[in-house]
Specification:
Bound molecules: fe (ii) ion
Shape: globular
Number of helices: 12
Strand order of the largest sheet: 4-3-6-5
Strand content: 5-15%
Length: about 290
Protein backbone atom coordinates (compact mmCIF):
# COMPACT_ATOMS: atom_id res chain seq x y z
CA UNK A 1 0.00 0.00 0.00
CA UNK A 2 1.41 3.37 -0.89
CA UNK A 3 0.69 6.66 -2.57
CA UNK A 4 -2.33 8.91 -2.31
CA UNK A 5 -2.70 12.21 -0.59
CA UNK A 6 -3.39 10.72 2.83
CA UNK A 7 -0.49 8.26 2.76
CA UNK A 8 2.18 10.22 4.55
CA UNK A 9 -0.07 11.23 7.38
CA UNK A 10 -1.58 7.76 7.62
CA UNK A 11 -4.76 9.40 8.85
CA UNK A 12 -8.23 8.41 7.69
CA UNK A 13 -9.98 11.22 5.83
CA UNK A 14 -13.16 9.26 5.30
CA UNK A 15 -12.30 7.97 1.82
CA UNK A 16 -10.74 4.67 0.77
CA UNK A 17 -6.94 4.75 0.78
CA UNK A 18 -4.90 4.17 -2.33
CA UNK A 19 -3.48 0.71 -1.86
CA UNK A 20 -0.45 -1.09 -3.18
CA UNK A 21 -0.59 -4.24 -5.28
CA UNK A 22 -4.26 -4.96 -4.79
CA UNK A 23 -5.77 -4.05 -8.15
CA UNK A 24 -7.08 -0.88 -9.68
CA UNK A 25 -10.49 -0.34 -8.11
CA UNK A 26 -10.82 1.38 -4.75
CA UNK A 27 -11.31 -0.85 -1.71
CA UNK A 28 -14.88 -1.47 -0.63
CA UNK A 29 -15.89 -0.57 2.89
CA UNK A 30 -17.24 2.55 4.51
CA UNK A 31 -14.23 4.67 5.42
CA UNK A 32 -16.45 7.54 6.55
CA UNK A 33 -17.35 5.59 9.68
CA UNK A 34 -13.75 4.93 10.72
CA UNK A 35 -11.70 6.93 13.19
CA UNK A 36 -8.55 8.84 12.29
CA UNK A 37 -6.46 5.70 12.91
CA UNK A 38 -8.78 3.77 10.53
CA UNK A 39 -10.32 1.61 13.25
CA UNK A 40 -14.08 1.30 13.58
CA UNK A 41 -16.62 -0.42 15.76
CA UNK A 42 -17.74 -3.83 14.63
CA UNK A 43 -21.38 -3.07 13.86
CA UNK A 44 -22.60 -6.53 14.79
CA UNK A 45 -26.25 -5.79 14.03
CA UNK A 46 -25.39 -5.12 10.36
CA UNK A 47 -24.59 -8.79 9.71
CA UNK A 48 -27.41 -10.60 7.96
CA UNK A 49 -28.29 -14.25 8.42
CA UNK A 50 -26.70 -14.78 5.00
CA UNK A 51 -23.43 -13.29 6.34
CA UNK A 52 -23.42 -15.65 9.32
CA UNK A 53 -24.24 -18.55 7.04
CA UNK A 54 -21.35 -17.69 4.71
CA UNK A 55 -19.01 -17.56 7.70
CA UNK A 56 -20.29 -20.92 8.98
CA UNK A 57 -19.81 -22.61 5.61
CA UNK A 58 -16.36 -21.11 5.01
CA UNK A 59 -15.24 -22.14 8.49
CA UNK A 60 -16.50 -25.70 8.06
CA UNK A 61 -14.83 -26.08 4.68
CA UNK A 62 -11.44 -24.87 5.92
CA UNK A 63 -11.57 -26.74 9.23
CA UNK A 64 -11.88 -30.15 7.62
CA UNK A 65 -8.84 -29.42 5.42
CA UNK A 66 -6.48 -28.46 8.24
CA UNK A 67 -5.13 -31.85 9.41
CA UNK A 68 -1.89 -32.66 7.65
CA UNK A 69 -1.74 -29.29 5.91
CA UNK A 70 -1.87 -26.59 8.64
CA UNK A 71 0.72 -26.26 11.39
CA UNK A 72 -0.17 -27.61 14.84
CA UNK A 73 0.06 -24.17 16.45
CA UNK A 74 -2.73 -23.00 14.17
CA UNK A 75 -4.91 -26.09 14.60
CA UNK A 76 -4.69 -25.98 18.38
CA UNK A 77 -5.62 -22.27 18.49
CA UNK A 78 -8.41 -22.11 15.93
CA UNK A 79 -11.13 -22.87 18.46
CA UNK A 80 -10.16 -19.63 20.21
CA UNK A 81 -12.24 -17.92 17.53
CA UNK A 82 -15.32 -19.19 19.35
CA UNK A 83 -18.43 -20.90 18.03
CA UNK A 84 -18.00 -21.66 14.32
CA UNK A 85 -21.61 -21.03 13.33
CA UNK A 86 -21.76 -17.21 13.69
CA UNK A 87 -19.37 -14.37 12.91
CA UNK A 88 -17.61 -13.84 16.25
CA UNK A 89 -17.72 -10.63 18.21
CA UNK A 90 -14.30 -8.97 18.05
CA UNK A 91 -14.48 -7.98 21.71
CA UNK A 92 -14.90 -11.60 22.82
CA UNK A 93 -11.80 -12.68 20.91
CA UNK A 94 -9.84 -9.68 22.19
CA UNK A 95 -10.61 -10.67 25.75
CA UNK A 96 -9.12 -14.12 25.23
CA UNK A 97 -6.17 -12.74 23.25
CA UNK A 98 -5.42 -10.13 25.87
CA UNK A 99 -5.13 -12.82 28.54
CA UNK A 100 -2.83 -14.95 26.34
CA UNK A 101 -0.48 -12.65 24.43
CA UNK A 102 -1.68 -9.14 25.24
CA UNK A 103 -3.05 -8.56 21.74
CA UNK A 104 -6.46 -7.23 20.72
CA UNK A 105 -8.28 -7.17 17.43
CA UNK A 106 -9.85 -3.98 16.13
CA UNK A 107 -12.36 -3.46 13.33
CA UNK A 108 -11.37 -1.64 10.11
CA UNK A 109 -13.46 -0.87 6.99
CA UNK A 110 -11.01 -2.79 4.76
CA UNK A 111 -7.46 -2.31 3.51
CA UNK A 112 -5.71 0.55 5.22
CA UNK A 113 -2.51 2.45 4.34
CA UNK A 114 0.77 0.95 5.40
CA UNK A 115 1.65 3.51 8.02
CA UNK A 116 -1.64 3.11 9.84
CA UNK A 117 -1.32 -0.67 9.58
CA UNK A 118 2.23 -0.76 10.95
CA UNK A 119 1.27 1.48 13.84
CA UNK A 120 -1.60 -0.78 14.88
CA UNK A 121 0.64 -3.87 14.81
CA UNK A 122 3.31 -2.11 16.84
CA UNK A 123 0.58 -1.41 19.42
CA UNK A 124 -0.46 -5.11 19.41
CA UNK A 125 -3.78 -4.28 17.75
CA UNK A 126 -4.59 -6.46 14.76
CA UNK A 127 -6.94 -4.85 12.23
CA UNK A 128 -9.82 -7.07 11.08
CA UNK A 129 -12.07 -6.09 8.16
CA UNK A 130 -15.62 -5.94 9.45
CA UNK A 131 -17.61 -6.92 6.33
CA UNK A 132 -18.36 -10.39 4.98
CA UNK A 133 -17.96 -11.39 1.33
CA UNK A 134 -21.15 -12.06 -0.64
CA UNK A 135 -22.34 -15.64 -1.22
CA UNK A 136 -21.24 -15.22 -4.87
CA UNK A 137 -17.69 -14.64 -3.60
CA UNK A 138 -17.68 -17.84 -1.58
CA UNK A 139 -14.70 -19.32 -3.39
CA UNK A 140 -12.72 -16.18 -4.04
CA UNK A 141 -12.77 -12.63 -2.77
CA UNK A 142 -10.27 -10.07 -4.05
CA UNK A 143 -9.85 -8.09 -0.84
CA UNK A 144 -9.51 -9.53 2.65
CA UNK A 145 -12.89 -9.83 4.38
CA UNK A 146 -13.85 -10.72 7.95
CA UNK A 147 -13.41 -14.43 7.30
CA UNK A 148 -9.89 -14.11 5.87
CA UNK A 149 -8.77 -11.77 8.61
CA UNK A 150 -10.26 -13.75 11.50
CA UNK A 151 -9.77 -17.32 10.42
CA UNK A 152 -6.46 -16.76 8.63
CA UNK A 153 -4.68 -14.39 10.97
CA UNK A 154 -6.07 -14.47 14.47
CA UNK A 155 -5.32 -18.04 15.67
CA UNK A 156 -1.55 -17.52 15.49
CA UNK A 157 -1.82 -14.31 17.48
CA UNK A 158 -2.40 -16.72 20.39
CA UNK A 159 1.15 -18.04 19.86
CA UNK A 160 3.56 -15.88 21.89
CA UNK A 161 6.52 -16.11 19.49
CA UNK A 162 4.47 -15.43 16.40
CA UNK A 163 2.64 -12.59 18.14
CA UNK A 164 6.00 -11.04 19.04
CA UNK A 165 7.05 -11.32 15.40
CA UNK A 166 3.93 -9.43 14.33
CA UNK A 167 4.58 -6.65 16.78
CA UNK A 168 8.24 -6.38 15.70
CA UNK A 169 7.08 -6.30 12.08
CA UNK A 170 4.88 -3.31 12.83
CA UNK A 171 7.66 -1.48 14.61
CA UNK A 172 10.03 -2.24 11.72
CA UNK A 173 7.43 -1.00 9.28
CA UNK A 174 7.15 2.37 10.92
CA UNK A 175 10.89 2.72 10.43
CA UNK A 176 10.84 1.36 6.84
CA UNK A 177 8.34 4.06 5.91
CA UNK A 178 11.05 6.58 6.71
CA UNK A 179 13.70 4.60 4.77
CA UNK A 180 11.56 4.17 1.64
CA UNK A 181 11.75 0.40 1.98
CA UNK A 182 8.08 -0.43 2.24
CA UNK A 183 8.06 -2.66 -0.81
CA UNK A 184 10.72 -4.92 0.70
CA UNK A 185 8.85 -5.12 3.94
CA UNK A 186 5.63 -5.88 2.08
CA UNK A 187 7.37 -8.87 0.52
CA UNK A 188 8.36 -10.08 3.97
CA UNK A 189 4.75 -9.87 5.13
CA UNK A 190 3.50 -11.55 1.98
CA UNK A 191 5.89 -14.52 2.09
CA UNK A 192 5.59 -15.12 5.84
CA UNK A 193 2.37 -13.83 7.41
CA UNK A 194 0.25 -14.46 4.30
CA UNK A 195 1.92 -17.37 2.48
CA UNK A 196 4.49 -18.88 4.85
CA UNK A 197 5.26 -22.59 5.21
CA UNK A 198 7.00 -24.24 8.15
CA UNK A 199 9.06 -27.44 8.12
CA UNK A 200 8.05 -29.82 10.90
CA UNK A 201 9.05 -33.41 11.79
CA UNK A 202 5.74 -34.46 10.21
CA UNK A 203 6.48 -32.58 6.97
CA UNK A 204 5.72 -29.16 5.50
CA UNK A 205 2.77 -27.30 7.01
CA UNK A 206 1.16 -23.94 6.29
CA UNK A 207 1.09 -21.03 8.73
CA UNK A 208 0.30 -18.15 6.34
CA UNK A 209 -3.18 -16.65 6.51
CA UNK A 210 -3.61 -16.36 2.77
CA UNK A 211 -3.10 -20.11 2.50
CA UNK A 212 -5.08 -21.12 5.58
CA UNK A 213 -8.16 -19.15 4.55
CA UNK A 214 -8.07 -20.35 0.92
CA UNK A 215 -10.05 -23.37 -0.24
CA UNK A 216 -7.60 -24.40 -2.94
CA UNK A 217 -4.22 -23.02 -1.98
CA UNK A 218 -3.93 -24.93 1.30
CA UNK A 219 -3.42 -28.24 -0.48
CA UNK A 220 -1.63 -26.63 -3.43
CA UNK A 221 0.99 -24.98 -1.23
CA UNK A 222 1.98 -28.25 0.41
CA UNK A 223 1.56 -30.77 -2.40
CA UNK A 224 1.65 -29.15 -5.87
CA UNK A 225 4.77 -30.34 -7.71
CA UNK A 226 4.96 -27.18 -9.83
CA UNK A 227 5.28 -24.84 -6.83
CA UNK A 228 8.78 -24.04 -5.62
CA UNK A 229 9.52 -24.06 -1.88
CA UNK A 230 12.82 -22.58 -0.74
CA UNK A 231 14.31 -22.11 2.70
CA UNK A 232 13.68 -18.81 4.46
CA UNK A 233 16.48 -16.32 3.87
CA UNK A 234 15.69 -12.69 4.58
CA UNK A 235 17.61 -11.11 1.70
CA UNK A 236 16.52 -13.77 -0.80
CA UNK A 237 12.93 -13.26 0.24
CA UNK A 238 13.07 -9.48 -0.03
CA UNK A 239 14.45 -9.81 -3.57
CA UNK A 240 11.54 -11.95 -4.70
CA UNK A 241 8.49 -10.62 -6.55
CA UNK A 242 5.10 -12.08 -5.74
CA UNK A 243 1.83 -12.75 -7.50
CA UNK A 244 -1.49 -11.43 -6.30
CA UNK A 245 -3.71 -12.97 -8.97
CA UNK A 246 -2.83 -16.69 -8.82
CA UNK A 247 -1.56 -19.25 -6.34
CA UNK A 248 2.00 -18.44 -5.34
CA UNK A 249 4.77 -19.83 -7.52
CA UNK A 250 7.26 -19.62 -4.62
CA UNK A 251 6.82 -20.34 -0.93
CA UNK A 252 9.45 -19.69 1.72
CA UNK A 253 9.91 -22.35 4.40
CA UNK A 254 10.87 -21.52 7.98
CA UNK A 255 12.13 -24.04 10.56
CA UNK A 256 10.37 -22.39 13.50
CA UNK A 257 8.66 -19.19 14.55
CA UNK A 258 11.72 -18.50 16.66
CA UNK A 259 13.85 -18.52 13.51
CA UNK A 260 11.48 -15.99 11.96
CA UNK A 261 11.56 -13.76 15.00
CA UNK A 262 15.36 -13.96 15.36
CA UNK A 263 16.03 -13.29 11.67
CA UNK A 264 13.88 -10.18 11.70
CA UNK A 265 14.94 -8.77 15.06
CA UNK A 266 18.12 -6.90 13.96
CA UNK A 267 17.89 -3.48 12.38
CA UNK A 268 16.97 -3.84 8.70
CA UNK A 269 18.86 -0.77 7.44
CA UNK A 270 21.91 -2.78 6.20
CA UNK A 271 19.59 -5.49 4.83
CA UNK A 272 17.72 -2.93 2.71
CA UNK A 273 21.01 -1.60 1.41
CA UNK A 274 22.22 -5.10 0.48
CA UNK A 275 18.94 -5.99 -1.22
CA UNK A 276 18.83 -2.75 -3.22
CA UNK A 277 22.27 -3.73 -4.62
CA UNK A 278 21.08 -7.14 -5.88
CA UNK A 279 18.89 -8.29 -8.75
CA UNK A 280 15.18 -8.94 -8.31
CA UNK A 281 14.12 -12.61 -8.50
CA UNK A 282 10.90 -13.67 -10.20
CA UNK A 283 8.44 -15.88 -8.37
CA UNK A 284 8.90 -19.55 -9.25
CA UNK A 285 12.68 -19.38 -9.71
CA UNK A 286 15.02 -21.62 -7.72
CA UNK A 287 18.53 -20.17 -7.61
CA UNK A 288 21.67 -22.33 -8.03
CA UNK A 289 22.52 -24.12 -4.80
CA UNK A 290 19.06 -23.71 -3.29
CA UNK A 291 17.09 -26.65 -1.98
CA UNK A 292 13.60 -26.98 -3.42
CA UNK A 293 11.54 -28.64 -0.67
FE1 LIG B 1 -4.22 -11.21 5.26
Amino acid sequence: MSGGPDFHSGVNLGVPPVTYGEGSRPPRGDYAKARADYTCEQDYAQYSEADHDTYRRLYARQLQQLPGLACEEFISAVQQLGAPDRIPRFDDISERLMRTTGWQIVGVPGLIPEEAFFKLLAEKRFPVTDWMRTPEEFDYVVEPDVFHDLFGHVPLLFNPTFADYMQAYGAGGMKASRLDACELLTRLYWYTVEFGLINTPQGLRAYGAGILSSAGELRHSITAPEATRVGFDLQRLMRTRYRIDTYQATYFVIDSFQQLFDATRPDFTPVYEAVHGQSVVDAGVVLPGERNF
